[in-house]
Amino acid sequence: MTQMTQDEIISNTKTVLQGLEALRVEHASLVSGIGDTVKDDEKTYIIKKNIDHIDLGLSEAQVMMALSCHLQNVEAEKQKLKTQVRRLHQENAWLRDELANTQQKFQSSEQLVAQLEEEKKHLEFMTSIKKYDDNQEQEDVNEKPRPDPVVELFPDDDNDDRNNTSPTPPSQFSNQSSGYEIPARLRTLHNLVIQYASQGRYEVAVPLCKQALEDLEKTSGHDHPDVATMLNILALVYRDQNKYKEAANLLNDALSIRGKTLGENHPAVAATLNNLAVLYGKRGKYKDAEPLCKRALEIREKVLGKDHPDVAKQLNNLALLCQNQGKYDEVEKYYQRALEIYESKLGPDDPNVAKTKNNLASCYLKQGKYAEAEVLYKQVLTRAHEKEFGAIDSKNKPIWQVAEEREEHKYDNRENTPYGEYGGWHKAAKVDSPTVTTTLKNLGALYRRQGMFEAAETLEDCALRSKKEALDIAKQNKKLQK
User: Fold this and answer.
1) Which of these, 32, 120, 234, 243, is most buried using a 10 Å CB contact count?
2) How many CA atoms does the CB half-sphere of 106 hold within 13 Å?
3) Helices assigned H by DSSP within 324-389
4) Is the pLDDT of residue 444 over 60?
5) Is-contact 311 304, C-beta < 8 A?
6) Do residues 143 and 434 touch, judged by C-beta distance below 8 A?
7) Residue 274: alpha-carbon gap to chain centroid
8) What is the mean pLDDT of residues 450-471?
9) b/e 283-302 (16+ beta carbons within 10 angstroms → b)
10) pLDDT confidence of 440, banded at 50, 70, 90?
């Protein structure tokens, strides 16, 4: 016999149940039809016995039906429970994923909070320094406000008609056949205009320049070197007021005059080209500025020689223009050459050496060459320390060595030694110059990028001390002068 399914068993049981019911009814009718004779007692007994068997079969069939119904209910409940288990498994897996994502977000948030706390400390330090900047009388190339202290901005202390004692120094023209020399009255006027401009008194400086320019054009004509000099001075005043279009027009006019009257290869032409390049650089027109800067470099190399300090200054400007365009190979080449000229002609202690090393370090930082930048910063600080305190030894260490020692032993000494006295680092912080202060801040920022927060805070604190001391000395000198 083939194995029957549960449904088939139930169906057959129902059929048997119906048959038994019919048979019981038939037997019951037979019993009622037999008379009460003795002869029929045996038949009646047999029929009643059969009826009992039929009742038993009916009871068993009903039990089987009830059991089948119960099994169906159990199976339905089983399927329901299985469905619930599957749903719980799915919910559990989803909750595990959510927990993992939440834990990951929590860890990221903790890291971000730690980073923001360090940035907050650094910004508080930079803010504390900024209040002294307004009273600082001397600015460095890297002292411009910026979001990241290691980012180099285009300088404005390399324009020849502004930073020298005279608009265009007479020494630049002594070997020229033209024999042109800036008149003494224009030098005096230049210094006066610069003084007014530095005080923000443009309402005095601009009319003064315009009046002098008008007088020169009346007496000497428009195409005269003195007029070109005056145009340069007025252009630089306009540039300070962010009037770049007016300044560019004046510088182009001055360039044309100087080219016609002094010759295309005159140092004064190079000075105007440089000023125009700086102006374009400030406006972000680096591609327009670069050829002007290169032409100024060619003129200075031809007239002054390839190893003249003015050539190095022009190389610095050209390097900054290329750096803003991402031409880092050229930047390194220009800075390294400028550094060689300064060191050979002006000596290792000349301020331009330290400035150029700072600029070259900035180039390295932009390329992610942190080790090379760190070496240059340490060279600047070490040389400044040696000039101030003598040869380096175990008891006479430059500030960067002290900072790194404090980083290394930050957990060992803080418990027993006050922060301000450990290692005598305050002595190493007394070297004071704008370039050293800038180097302290830049190396501190580099340390901070490397996670050396103790060393970074040491250098930043030194920079703050230097500015405070310089400001105090300036105030004392003013009181004495009064």
Assistant:
1) 234
2) 6
3) 328-346, 351-366, 370-389
4) yes
5) yes
6) yes
7) 31
8) 78
9) beebebbbebbbbbbebbbe
10) confident
CATH class for domain 369-411+423-481?
mainly alpha
Band of pLDDT at residue 247, cut at 50, 70 and 90: very high
Once rounded to an integer, what is the mean pLDDT over residues 77-84? 90
Q: What is the pLDDT of residue 254?
A: 94
Residue 454 CB neighbours (<10 A): 17
How many Å apart are CA 479 and CA 472, to the nearest integer? 11
* Side-chain-facing half-sphere of 420: CA atoms under 13 Å: 1
Report d(CA 206, CA 208) in Å as an integer: 5
Give the up-direction half-sphere exposure of residue 126: CA atoms within 13 A in the CB hemisphere. Answer: 19
Q: Which residues fall within 8 angstroms of residue 364, CB to CB, at 6 or more apart? A: 370, 372, 373, 376
Burial of 81 (0-12, 13-18, 19+ CB in 10 A): exposed
3-state secondary structure of 396: strand
In this model, does residue 178 exceed pLDDT 70? no
Model pTM score = 0.60
| Structure token digits, residue 280 | 């374009």
Tokens of 478: 């003013």
Gap between the Cα atoms of 106 and 244, Å rounded: 50
Q: What is the DSSP letter of 68?
A: H
Q: Residue 381: exposed, middle, or buried by beta-carbon count in 10 A (0-12, 13-18, 19+)?
A: buried
Q: How far is CA 391 from the centre of its chain?
A: 37
Identity at 311, one-letter amino acid code:
V
**CA–CA separation, 199 and 304 (whole Å):** 35
The model's pLDDT over 297-306, given as tens digits with 9 standing for 90+, comes to: 999 999 999 9
- Rounded to 10 degrees, the C-alpha dihedral 223/226/230/232 comes to 80
How far is Cα of residue 338 from the mean position of the Cα atoms in its chain? 29
Spatial contact of 455 and 404, defined as CB atoms under 8 Å apart: yes
Contact (CB, 8 A) for 178 and 263 = yes
Would you mind telling me the total number of residues written for the chain in this entry? 482
What six digits make up the tokens of 463?
A: 């920079």
CA 443 to CA 382: how far, in whole Å? Answer: 13
Q: What is the amino acid identity at position 33?
A: G
Of 467, 445, 438, 472, residue with least CA distance to 131 = 467
Per-residue pLDDT, averaged over 189-203, amounts to: 87
If pLDDT is split at 50, 70 and 90, which confidence band does 470 have? Answer: low
Identify the CA nearest to 266 among candidates 339, 346, 182.
182
Q: Which of 441, 458, 440, 452 is nearest to 381 (CA)?
A: 440
464 against 467, higher pLDDT: 464
Output the pLDDT for position 180: 65
Q: What is the mean pLDDT of residues 310-326?
A: 93
